[in-house]
Amino acid sequence: MSDESKAQTLAERAAELRAALNYHIYRYHVLSSPVVTDYEYDRLMNELKAIEAEHPELVAPDSPTQRVGSDLTEGFASVAHPAPILSLSNAFNADDIRAWRTRIDKLLPDELKLRDGRDPLAYTIEPKYDGLTIVLTYTAGLLTLGATRGSGEVGDDVTNNVRTVGSIPRRIPVDPNAGVKAPPRLVVRGEALILKDAFEKFNEQQEAAGQPTYVNARNMASGALRQIDPRVTAARPLTTYCYGVVDADDSGGIVPDSQAGRLDYLRALGFLVDGVLTKRIEELEAVIAYVTGWDGDLPFEIDGLVIKVDDCAVYSALGIVGKDPRGAIAYKLPSEEVTTKLLAVEENVGRTGVITPSAKLEPVFLSGVTVSNATLHNYDDITRKDIRAGDMVIVKRSGGVIPYVVGPVAGARTGTEEPIEPPARCPVCATPVVRDEGEVAYYCPNLACPARVHRNIEYFVSKAALDIEGLGTKIVQQLLDAGLIQDEADVFTLAEKKDKLLALDGFGEKKVSNLLSAVEAAKTRPLPRLVAALGIKGVGESIAELLTGVYPAMDALAAALAEDIETIPGIGPNIAHAVAGWFAAPRNRDLIERLRAAGVRLAMDAPAAEVEQVLAGMTFVLTGTLPHLTRAAAAALIEAHGGKVTGSVSGKTSYVVAGENPGSKLAKAQQLGVPVLDEAGLLALVGEGAPLGAPPIQPALF
């Protein structure tokens, strides 16, 4: 391609990007109804910035790179901010953070420069809230003005609306005994948002009242704060977290001169505040690495972290480049949301017969992988969110879990989208579907449904059940296709079919020998594992332990009545009837007899010596992933030694046992002063591990 052709192509691309970005800015800031995610917007903006940096002649007056985004809305008075309310430049990995630190090093005095790997600077790390920027002015301690960010220079006066938000103090300090006082004039920056739980509850109330629901909390917060009628704002569950001092009349030196100090000061005045302080660049990177791989549950949505030079004088001296302060940068977490087209809905039949809708998507890159499938949860959820085939939808992937459809982008509809209806018949065996009263699931009741049989066998041999190594999903399908197995019991007849196994594609002598050895070993698995492997609705490892604790032989459990099973502590009527109903089915009774004939152990071992009840009277809460014990195994260990396991932390909790990615339960424990153990600490407590005193676990961020 000639230089002239290349220049023309770049000019055309820059024009396309400007048009797209300006449209998305309008939808986001004016209509509060974006049709792309932040990640997609950032990707377009970064591409345009790169083109303009290399070819300054392509910078146009209407380029969105030449202005700070605006959320000014008709119907509100405009007010000037006392200082620019700036945005931040972005970083997407540790290299970007180091590059930012290297850039500002050139502007620092010698005593603050990087030297021999040592960083004299300290930083604050704060959540990058996914809400709407709000600027609050207090005069003589009284809230006198609330404004949106607007253009960064001028915002909308929404004072009457912010006065309805309970977390925004009307007067500061809120507590006269807090030991702090407000300067004559204080301007604070914060973020108006809606907490996750409040968002879900509000949508449920909207649905019950037959009113429209919201796709995400950010759009809801944005719309709520810009209502002409403050009574509408008051009816929305808005919350505001504050994180910055924009301006102050502070001749008395009341306001601290560090960002960490200011966060503490704002907290003492009565504002909601979050953030942590790091002392070295290595600590900063460690926190980022922790959060990047974290599957915790903050009460609010974030789309990244904000890193700031802690010393306010140094921060100010670094100045501004374009529209971004040099002393801060936004670390964007790997994208968890994108928009794409919902092409079709596929109906999947699980091992219990539940029919789950799955979205077939136009392939899209999300969190490091290309996604073409996502879960739609259930048909009630589809109806509640009004998701239609052909919709542009928002897809989310959190913590590496299966992507799911958050909701439709209603503003992108063309009129060709079609409603999604629940199935009348099983998509595999055509049996009429059923739906139990009070449940959301539609399911196929046919125990012989090929899809159910396949899923049951997969589960039966999986690590969560009998753990037969070498029998993965593909091998199970291969054995089914070859007619070597038809149900779970057939797995234990494979030794009789060794010649046929050797004839299968990919099956050599060693592979077959290893497989048959694994099958033989599975015959002696403990009874609770076998009961869990049967795939009875609602019966997993922990429930199987409860059942076999009372009925230590399969025959005894099979003969138990639902009303007797229901008397077992921890087992309710639904599970009790599911267990009794499963054993009442002739197919399942025959399955048990065939397992017996194959030599599978159907009873518990002789009772072990009585375990000392060293945890009697103690209450435990489990959170996060332990390195060796599963959640069920840890709970069983605690209960075997006389302890009790509950789901929530309170002042009466004896210990919280925390592993990786602990979430909010760990934070609650630290707040209440509840002792925290890791796995080694738990084992030591029951006399099965090393002594207590292992290094403390990573505390919950924020």
Offer a quick outline of the entry.
With 702 residues, the protein is of the alpha+beta class. The protein contains 24 helices and 24 strands. The protein is 34% helix and 19% strand.
Describe this structure in words.
- The chain is of the alpha+beta class and 702 residues long.
- It folds into 6 domains: 3-66, Helix hairpin bin (Helix Hairpins); 90-332, D-amino Acid Aminotransferase, Chain A, domain 1; 337-419, Beta Barrel (OB fold (Dihydrolipoamide Acetyltransferase, E2P)), CATH 2.40.50; 450-522, DNA polymerase, domain 1 (Orthogonal Bundle); 527-597, 5' to 3' exonuclease, C-terminal subdomain (DNA polymerase, domain 1, Orthogonal Bundle), CATH 1.10.150.20; 619-685, Rossmann fold.
- Helices cover 34% and strands 19% of the residues.
- It has 24 helices and 24 strands.
- The strands form 7 sheets. Strands 2-13-10-3-9 form a 5-stranded mixed beta sheet. The protein has a 5-stranded antiparallel beta sheet with strand order 16-15-14-18-19.
- Helix 1 runs antiparallel to helix 2 and helix 16 crosses helix 17 (541-550).
- It is globular, with a radius of gyration of 30 Å.
